[in-house]
Each structure stands twice: as structure tokens, then as C-alpha cells.
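Thread: zinc ion complex, take 2
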Amino acid sequence: MTPDVVALLQDLIRCPSVTPHEGGALDLLEKILAQNGFICHRLKFSDTDTPDVDNLYARWGKGAPHICFAGHTDVVPVGDEKGWSFAPFGGEIRHGEICGRGTADMKGAIAAFVVAALSAISQQPQGSISFLITGDEEGPAINGTKKVLEWMEQHGEIPDFCLVGEPTSREALGDMMKIGRRGTLSGWLTVNGVQGHVAYPHLADNPVPKLLKLLTALDSLVLDHGTAHFDPSNLEIVNIDIGNSATNVIPAEARAVFNVRFNDTYTGAALEQKIRATLDSCASPYALSIRVGGESFYTSPGKWSDLVSKSVEKATGKTPEASTTGGTSDARFIRRLCPVIEFGLVGKTIHKTDERVALDDLARLVKAYQEILKSFFA
Ligand SMILES: [Zn+2]
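Output below.
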């Protein structure tokens, strides 16, 4: 029996699944999918430095073609609940909207795809539908999609195409899909000096001007001018930390943090090389640790973007712009396995107080996902 999308979304919202807590959301999905013939695997992963995370992989059918829907049931914290005009985990409906944390990002899309998938399998299509649902997208993303994908590879679960249900629509449902995302790299820069009295600078070594010189070099770096499908790569200095509360002390150490969002001109490793070469050219000692949070991904326009675009158009009347803007998503990991495109609800209220979704959008998202499945199996 196909559940009602609104009731299912309400049930999901009522699971307080703030990362890394499962909150009952995966249990709920597993139950519905298992009842409808999906083979379900709960995949719990742990790591020494990060909390354990629960994930769900569920597949209906055995053969090809295989379409995978990827998403996350975890949500960001609500912040100060007093700032909300409804209970964040209440799933209340008012003024034609369904309200609560995670409605747009992205329990709404999960509920819509469940309903679309169950109506598709009632037609007994030739092929498979799977769900890759993680509980660690909003958190460190270490024990989530990345590890589920490793498990899928080991078990020969390689989809032909993956649709990620992130809220990609900008102003109105259907106006945008993502065919790529920039990569992300963070750097922690430290300059050491010698502490001393400001009145006796010859007895000290001030790390602050040295750090400023290094940061100026980074800030003036032109990484590229953008590519056919991406904006230029961009480096932002996000923190300078000297932690010195005295006016008469030269500090011993100065630190800064920066983040780069990079396009397909670079791999994370090539970008790191470029950054180190730039800092080396300042001839000033430094220590730098780098973490590549994700490589860029890009699915060339063609078969898959056409399929999504035409389906979205049928359901919403809009031709989605094929964009590569915005932050990273788990598509950055999935790209290794198969072509991936993201399409979902309007992202205007995500991570904010009063997150909510129009009921009408939810209904049309079900329709868009149904159209995608219909043409995928045609
Ligand atoms: Zn999300």
C-alpha cells in the first residue's frame, strides 16, 4: 500500500534525527520499504574520533537498470526554539505548508521518492530501485554515504544512475537542478615566533606580520577564471586567531584558517600543491595542515540531465537550470560509482528557523520523481 506523502513526511519530521541521532527516522523508512519488498540493510559505522552513525541501504529488484535515490534523514539542530513559530519536530500543517526541521532538507524529498518508488514498483518494472539513506550528511560525513558506498562496491551494488534529493530548487520548484558541485578544501595555517615584551622587540620574534604576509599572498591568488560549467575557484580567509589579550606582549604564535571552494580545474591534491607553492614563495616559515572535504563533481549534460530535466518540466512546467553552484553534498562521493544529478525542493528555508515546504510543492515533487522513474524504466 502506498503511503500518503504528507502523512509520511509528518511522521519523519516527528523523528528528532539531529546528527548523529537516528531518531527513529531510519526505522520508519526501513519498515515501509521492507513491507513493500525492498531488501534492507542497516549499516552502522564507527570511527575513533566521530560518533557512530546509522545508515540504510534498501533495494527492490535484482536486475538492471538500477536507479538509486540518495538522501539523508539527519537534520541540523533547531537552535533557539523560541525563534520558531511552530514546534520544530511537530510536523504541523498550516497555511498550506508543512512545517518542521528537515522538511526541505531533506525529509520532504525522501517521503516523495518513497511514494514515487512504491507507485513505480506496483507496475513491476524491469530493473531495480534502491535507497541510500544516511544519518551523517549534516555532520562530519565520515560514517555516512562514503562508507555506505564502499559497502555497496564490495557487494556489487553499483547503480546505473543516482538521483540525490537535496533541495536544489531556488525560487520555485523545478527552476534548478545540480549537475555538479565545487570541491572544498580547508587549511589551518600556523606561524611560530618568540614571545616577548613589546618594548624589547629585538628579544622577541613577532609571528603576526609574517602571518599577514602569508595571508595576503593567499588572498591575492587568482586560482582560475572559471570553466564552462563552473564559477571561478575561490579562497576565503575565515579566521585569524592570535588569542593575545595583552597590549604589551608580542605573541608566540599566530594562526589562521581558510577555505577554498574549487571547480574542476583542480583536484584537491593539485590545489594543495598550488597553495603550498604560493606560501613557499613568501620565504617565511609556516606550518600548514590541509583537509580536502570533497572533490568537485560534474555530470556532463546529456542522457541523465535530459531525463531529469524533461521529467521535472512535465511535473512543474519549468525547465530546470543545470547548475553547479552552492555548497557540497554527498554527490561528491557518489560520483565515483555512477552519474549523479541532484533535484529536490525549494531551499529557501533550509537550516533556518521555521523551515517549511508548500504542500503543493511536495505533491509536484512526487509527480517529478514519478516521471523520472517512468522514463528511467521506459
Ligand atoms: Zn541536505
